[in-house]
Design brief:
- The chain has about 650 residues and is an alpha/beta fold.
- The chain folds into 4 domains: about 140 residues, Tetratricopeptide repeat domain (Serine Threonine Protein Phosphatase 5, Tetratricopeptide repeat), CATH 1.25.40.10; about 70 residues, no CATH class; about 100 residues, 3-Layer(aba) Sandwich (Rossmann fold); about 180 residues, Response regulator (Rossmann fold, 3-Layer(aba) Sandwich).
- It has 24 helices and 15 strands.
- An 8-stranded mixed β-sheet has the order 2-1-3-4-5-13-12-11, sandwiched between helices. Strands 7-6-8-9-10-14-15 form a 7-stranded mixed β-sheet, sandwiched between helices.
- α4 runs antiparallel to α5 and α5 packs parallel to α7.
- The longest helix has 22 residues.
Length: about 650
């Protein structure tokens, strides 16, 4: 399933909204405050055009610079409603020098966006050249580079657009957007004649030169020829890790080779180092699955140590030994090295997943928390929630989880209002929740008003624009967060999470504080008998409880040896595995359908299978994508202990 997301940027600095607070029971809102609240409601319901009209009307009652600030908000809302002509007209009436420096930068960014919408690319470029990217937040920098790409492409300036795409790639996470951006660079260069490529190569920066050299190889050599492979190998050596390699891999994946059940299987895993314990669990899972099929014709399995040398050499040795299928590698960096250094002569079932990297005969299988996050989001959507707050730890894992949720949530049509991070310090946790609910702003307004009118009867009022909260938290922290929501009078706000929030063992006295919270995970979390059987199997094979998910991964990977031909037929085909109902998507990723549940009076009640919602923005071009995620994927993947067990170290695939 190929998804490229549309994320309409809501620039916080443009949200010049006066949010009222219940400072006193007998002091009504002013007419202006009432109008702003009305505009907010229109915007939240998706009627940005009506909201823009209200801000425009309010601006006409004000003098500069207050007038210009309100007009800037109207421009933002008109752009969101697709009213580019009106947005450009309002932008032209703003007295930009009266705005503060930050607002002025955003003004030129939005003005440029309006001109792009009207296909006035030269005027758009003129506005964008007035923008100082260093003053923009990361999502705004992404928008800035995307708009410049559009402007240069509209003017037919090929190499300038490529240079801008190269800059844009620094902000793109490995995934559909990353893949599409690389493909567009490659496609553009493919249309340039050889003489022009050679001319530009002499003065090109290193990254662009790598792209040009790759384009020249494709132009001047025959597909699948030994000559092309020889030149490509030299190119790989000269430009290690260059993004064009992903473009090359993608183009090879238009079809899917028929998968035949093999009689000889090589398993390449790290036998030494920090992953040795994970390897033991996976290996025992595979051997257990094989033993359960006693009496059936079983493939010969040979294990190889991925830490014993260069992965390309190990891969070729396994082929020399007669392997028809390779299971592994496990580490993401090792998978990447294999893809860069070798063409795949035989199918590979990698035991990890690299978002955005696809290749014919590469199948990717792993315990990816993406499945939990997306199915929790899909369930929230089915529950008719649309406007989400996101609360995650201040870690790479937390940021990654938040980005995954926002990516998918906005792809299926939801609105992400704000993402806030927190640390494990209780005082910081309270402050972070307060900021997420805008209570800090309410208290700040109280202090300002008291300076003017003296002491006030005052009750802080939390924000009321959200209809759900997605959070990532361990049980101990979640048991603090949920009651705090009650304390701040938003206890009725539905909360969704991942299996990380559940210890895996019933504990009604402690988990009563989590009542109402919904999460998705594997079936064992909702069935004690399954948990017990898995623990017994782990004990029998000397697999620690924390590594049972990896044991199950190994078990299912062996089953896939014979099940892949069926899964290839259609995404509607599935295999009932230990880590979920497995299906194969269009990019050869083996995905998991999980179970979802809800805490009720301290116990977990099953809600059935996690829903699989297809994003309605499927196959949209990159130039429509306004806010790709910035966080690079954790190189080490899932296989630290923390995702299976609540430990101090964390890792998120």
């Amino acid at each position: 399933m190929k998804i490229i997301l549309i994320k309409f940027i809501t620039i916080a600095s443009l949200a010049i909204l006066i949010i009222g607070c219940a400072s006193t029971a007998n002091k009504p809102e002013t007419p202006t405050e009432q109008k702003i609240q009305q505009a907010k409601k229109f915007a939240m319901s998706g009627d940005n055009k009506q909201a823009a009209k209200i801000y425009l009307g309010l601006a006409n009652q004000e003098k500069s610079p207050a007038k210009d600030k309100l007009l800037l908000r109207a421009v933002d809302l008109y752009l969101k409603s697709g009213e580019n002509q009106q947005a450009q007209k309002v932008a032209a009436s703003i007295n930009a020098p009266l705005l503060n420096p930050r607002e002025e930068v955003l003004y030129h960014l939005l003005y440029g966006k309006a001109e792009i919408g009207l296909e006035r690319h030269r005027k758009a470029l003129k506005e964008l050249e007035k923008v100082s990217p260093g003053m923009l937040a990361v999502p705004e920098q992404q928008l800035y580079h995307i708009l410049k790409v559009k402007a240069f492409e509209g003017l037919g300036q090929d190499f300038e657009s490529i240079q801008e795409r190269i800059k844009l790639s620094k902000f793109l996470e490995e995934g559909d957007a990353f893949e599409h951006n690389n493909q567009q660079i490659s496609n553009t260069l493919a249309q340039v004649n050889t003489a022009k490529l050679i001319h530009h190569r002499s003065s090109a920066p290193q990254t662009l030169r790598g792209w040009i050299d790759y384009a020249l190889i494709v132009k001047e050599t025959m597909p699948d020829s030994s000559e092309r492979e020889r030149y490509l190998q030299r190119w790989r050596d000269q430009y290690p890790g260059h993004h064009a390699i992903y473009s090359a891999n993608t183009r090879e994946t238009k079809g899917r080779s028929a998968f035949n059940v093999p009689s000889n299987v090589a398993v390449i895993l790290p036998h030494n180092g920090s992953y040795a314990e994970a390897t033991h669990a996976i290996k025992q899972g595979m051997l257990t699955a094989r033993d359960e099929e006693a009496g059936k014709v079983a493939p010969e399995i040979k294990f190889y140590d991925s830490t014993a040398g260069d992965i390309a050499t190990i891969y070729k040795r396994s082929l020399s030994d007669g392997a028809e299928l390779i299971i592994g590698p496990l580490e993401k960096k090792t998978i990447q090295q294999l893809l860069i250094s070798s063409s795949l002569e035989k199918p590979v079932l990698a035991l990890n997943q690299l978002d955005g990297i696809t290749k014919n005969d590469l199948y990717q299988f792993g315990i990816n928390p993406r499945d939990e996050i997306e199915q929790a989001a899909a369930l929230a959507w089915q529950h008719e929630h649309r406007r989400a707050l996101v609360f995650v730890p201040e870690t790479k894992i937390g940021q990654r989880a938040g980005d995954l949720f926002i990516d998918y949530w906005e792809a299926i049509g939801g609105t992400s209002l704000e993402m806030m991070t927190y640390t494990s310090d209780p005082k910081d946790l309270v402050k972070s929740i307060s900021r997420l609910l805008n209570l800090d702003e309410s208290m700040s307004r109280r202090r300002q008003m008291q300076k003017v009118v003296g002491k006030l009867d005052f009750t802080p009022r939390p924000r009321d624009d959200a209809d759900m909260l997605f959070m990532l938290a361990k049980p101990k922290v979640a048991r603090i967060i949920r009651p705090l929501l009650d304390f701040y009078r938003v206890g009725d706000l539905p909360v969704y999470s991942t299996s990380k929030v559940y210890s895996g063992k019933p504990n009604p006295s402690l988990d009563r504080d989590l009542s109402g919270l919904v999460f998705c995970g594997d079936a064992s979390q909702f069935d004690e008998s399954i948990q017990q059987m898995q623990l017994e199997a782990g004990s029998l094979h000397q697999v620690a409880a924390r590594n049972i998910p990896l044991f199950n991964l190994g078990y299912d990977s062996y089953k896939l040896i014979s099940e892949l031909p069926k899964l290839q037929q259609s995404p509607s085909q599935h295999m009932s595995g230990k880590i979920g109902k497995l299906w194969l998507d269009d990019n050869n990723f083996i995905r998991r359908q999980l179970k979802c549940g809800q805490f009720v009076d301290g116990n977990v009640k099953s809600l059935g299978a996690g829903p699989i919602l297809k994003a309605e923005t499927e196959l949209l071009p990159l130039h429509e994508q306004l806010q790709p995620s910035e966080e690079k994927q954790n190189e080490d993947g899932l296989y630290n202990k923390s995702w299976q067990e609540q430990s101090n170290q964390e890792s998120l695939n």
